[in-house]
Amino acid sequence: MKKVINTVNAPAAIGPYSQANLANGVLYISGQIPVDPATGKLVEGIEKETHQVMKNLEAILTEAGMTFKNVVKASIFLKSMDDFAVMNDIYASYLDAESFPARETVQVSCLPKNVDIEISMIAHQD
Which residue spans traverse the membrane (predicted)? Predict the structure, then answer.
């Protein structure tokens, strides 16, 4: 059975999708962009953008009763690989080194609202 996960502590969906779906103990989190849920505005600059995306992901995980330790897979989309090192350091700071998820990072030509980064995750309940 699927359960839709939704929280006001992460940006509302801007299309026909859910923030996340929980099915059979697996949480599928939609791609998060750097929108501050309190203001509805985009944050700018790869450092601030990465922090905001990770905070949005964390809010969804929390709503589902999970943490970053539950994440088994992350997909990272960057407009420029020149931002990789900065993004990678910030991304890693939110995670437990003992339980890094599997991951890919790809450069894309454009992202929603022309942001520099989008991250989606899959997590599993213990």
Answer: none
